[in-house]
Fold this protein.
Amino acid sequence: MAMSRDTARKALGAIRIGYGAAGLVAPELLLHGLGVATTTSQPATYPFRMFGIRTVLIGADLWLLRGPELRRATKLAVLIHGCDTLSAAVTTIRGDLPRAKGIVATAISAGNTVLAITAARS
């Protein structure tokens, strides 16, 4: 059975809010999940915190907006998550992440892209 647009939108919003909040309050956990040694890479927490708030806000948009604003937000989600997936794949191919962790990150981003496409379909 196919997932509805509303279900995909709400799931993507929840994922964004969860990961964004984690980026704000516990970036070390996310970095550890990527295989980054947080004891030697403390500056790496900054972008997680910076993008954490962005991610929380765009997740909230998927739950709170209505009408044309919601349609715009769901269409932008495809671009955002498509770029995230491409970035994860390139990072993995370049060897900037351990291969297994990079594959997981790419798969998670691809799953979010599928949710975004599902939420944005007409």
